[in-house]
């Protein structure tokens, strides 16, 4: 269809016409399974990259520059880059909503973002100063978050709501498994940082280009976007909690849970060194071991929770229970500050985080303002981008918050677990007031 067709949302089209627009890209048959498999694969690679860089490669690279100030320097890099990623995700999502091309709305953002992100990531590996590492990691973060905003929207664009729990389960399992495998690989390759960075850069570029080639996106059937006015554009990012309370509760719950989770992930290498008492080499190998334990637990929990969510038609109880399990996992190292204690932490966190990730994505697509109002999908990318910022903002605040706690407590890492536990337990209760999702 031509992009000059009148938008049925604004013209008062009949319900049948509106349904045709809303479901223009829904897939079925073998195309559905190809899309699901390749989407899971790309998220696997993306999370492998993120977790490898954030948990292993960057901490090792920064420690080599200035061992005495490693916690402070890591917090600076994460805070600066996360500011850009937080701004990028909703803006890129909104711009992808407005994109009209022969390849669809999301494809250009996925392909270009992945290639540019890969180039910046490899460039960061060659840097030997904090400012230059930060500069290129910012470039990689902006590009990859632009890609991720479009990629996340594929779930809402191309799968009907009744299938999103299963889709979310597969994608969530891929994400959490990818994060685990990424840490395992990075842990064993920490002594060859350049090669490790190159491996993940090539993987994300090839994976995303293959994704868009295997899953060609149809041209969008909606009306061409109106001319963009910056004031109205930025004003559209405000979603009133009074008018859309479920969206606000979902945002707050996600934010609190990731505030807790991100703090431990960010400082895991230093926790194993300074709290558990391992050497740098042993700490890198232990990260790989912990991730292997987490991998087994999260794959089982992730796939099982997504399928169970669709079978029983409920999201909230599973999100709530998985968050509680994450909170319990964080209490273990407080009691057992040993390698066995960290292994128990890894197993329980894998169960909780795997179940949370698998169901949370499905819940997010059902609390979008447009979904609740019955309107079209003109702002799906923007709205999901705002919810994604509930993950990105903790990447700004959590490292700074944890660095402050460590400075205040004389590098007592127990306070990181206490803080994380409080955030995660609080976040588990924010899902309960949501009324539009069972």
Order of helices and strands: HHHHHHHHHHHHHHHHH
Structural class: mainly alpha
Mean pLDDT: 79
What percent strand? under 5%
Principal-axes shape call: globular
> Using DSSP, what is the number of strands?
0
Please write the CATH class name. Answer: Mainly Alpha
How large is the radius of gyration? 21 Å
> What is the distance, rounded to the nearest whole angstrom, between the alpha carbons of the first and last residues?
37 Å
CATH superfamily: MFS general substrate transporter like domains
Low-confidence stretches: 1-24, 371-377
Number of domains: 1
CATH topology: Growth Hormone, Chain: A
The profile of the biggest β sheet is: none
Fraction in helix: over 70%
Counting H and I runs of at least 4 residues, what is the number of helices?
Answer: 17
CATH architecture: Up-down Bundle
Secondary-structure map with pairings?
Layout: H1 8-11, H2 15-22, H3 29-65, H4 70-98, H5 107-125, H6 130-158, H7 164-188, H8 193-214, H9 230-235, H10 245-266, H11 268-274, H12 280-312, H13 316-335, H14 339-366, H15 369-373, H16 380-409, H17 414-430
Helix pairs in contact: 3-4, 3-6, 3-7, 3-8, 4-6, 4-16, 5-6, 5-8, 6-16, 7-12, 7-14, 10-16, 10-17, 11-12, 12-14, 13-14, 13-17
What's the gist of this structure?
The protein has 438 residues and is mainly alpha-helical. Helix content is 78%, strand content 0%.
Tell me about this structure.
- By secondary structure, the protein is mostly helical.
- The protein has a single domain, classed as Growth Hormone, Chain: A (Up-down Bundle), CATH 1.20.1250.20.
- The chain is 78% helix and 0% strand.
- It has 17 helices and no strands.
- The protein has helices at residues 8-11, 15-22, 29-65, 70-98, 107-125, 130-158, 164-188, 193-214, 230-235, 245-266, 268-274, 280-312, 316-335, 339-366, 369-373, 380-409, 414-430.
- Helix 3 runs antiparallel to helix 4 (70-98), helix 10 packs antiparallel against helix 17 and helix 13 runs antiparallel to helix 14.
- The longest helix has 37 residues, at 29-65.
- It starts with 7 loop residues before the first helix and ends in an 8-residue tail after the last helix.
- Mean pLDDT is 79; it is low at 1-24 and 371-377.
- It comes from Steroidobacter flavus.
- Pfam families: MFS_1.
- The chain crosses the membrane at residues 33-58, 74-95, 107-124, 130-155, 167-189, 195-214, 247-272, 287-306, 318-336, 342-363, 412-432.
- Keywords: Membrane, Transmembrane, Transmembrane helix.
- This is MFS transporter.
């Amino acid at each position: 269809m031509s992009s000059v067709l009148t938008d049925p949302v604004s013209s008062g089209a009949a319900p049948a016409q509106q349904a045709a627009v809303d479901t223009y890209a829904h897939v079925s048959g073998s195309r559905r399974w190809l899309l699901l498999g390749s989407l899971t694969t790309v998220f696997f690679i993306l999370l492998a990259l993120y977790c490898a860089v954030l948990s292993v490669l960057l901490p090792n690279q920064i420690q080599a520059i200035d061992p005495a100030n490693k916690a402070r320097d890591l917090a600076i890099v994460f805070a600066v880059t996360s500011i850009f990623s937080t701004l990028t995700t909703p803006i890129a999502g909104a711009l992808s909503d407005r994109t009209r091309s022969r390849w669809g709305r999301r494809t250009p953002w996925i392909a270009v973002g992945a290639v540019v992100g890969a180039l910046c990531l490899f460039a960061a590996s060659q840097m030997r100063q904090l400012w230059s590492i930060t500069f290129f990691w910012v470039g990689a973060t902006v590009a990859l978050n632009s890609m991720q905003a479009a990629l996340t929207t594929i779930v809402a664009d191309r799968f009907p709501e009744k299938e999103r729990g299963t889709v979310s389960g597969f994608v969530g399992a891929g994400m959490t498994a990818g994060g685990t495998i990424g840490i395992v690989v990075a842990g064993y390759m920490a002594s060859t940082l350049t090669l490790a960075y190159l491996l993940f850069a090539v993987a994300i570029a090839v994976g995303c280009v293959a994704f868009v080639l295997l899953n060609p996106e149809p041209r969008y059937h909606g009306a061409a976007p109106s001319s963009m006015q910056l004031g109205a554009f930025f004003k559209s990012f405000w979603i009133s909690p009074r008018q859309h309370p479920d969206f606000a509760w979902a945002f707050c719950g996600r934010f609190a849970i990731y505030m807790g989770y991100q703090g431990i992930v960010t400082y895991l290498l230093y926790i194993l060194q300074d709290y558990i008492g391992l050497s740098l080499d042993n700490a890198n190998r232990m990260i790989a071991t912990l991730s292997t334990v987490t991998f087994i637990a999260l794959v089982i929990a992730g796939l099982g929770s997504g399928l169970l969510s669709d079978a029983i038609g409920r999201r909230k109880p599973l999100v709530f229970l998985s968050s509680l399990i994450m909170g319990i996992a964080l209490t273990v190292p407080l009691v057992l500050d040993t390698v066995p204690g960290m292994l128990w932490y890894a197993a329980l966190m894998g169960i909780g985080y795997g179940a949370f990730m698998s169901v949370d994505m499905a819940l997010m697509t059902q609390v979008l303002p447009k979904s609740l109002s019955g309107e079209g999908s003109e702002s799906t990318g923007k709205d999901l981008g705002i919810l994604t910022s509930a993950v990105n903002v903790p990447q700004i605040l959590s490292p700074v918050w944890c660095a402050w706690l460590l400075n205040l407590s004389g590098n007592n890492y127990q306070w990181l677990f206490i803080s994380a536990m409080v955030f995660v337990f609080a976040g588990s209760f924010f899902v309960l007031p949501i009324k539009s999702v069972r």
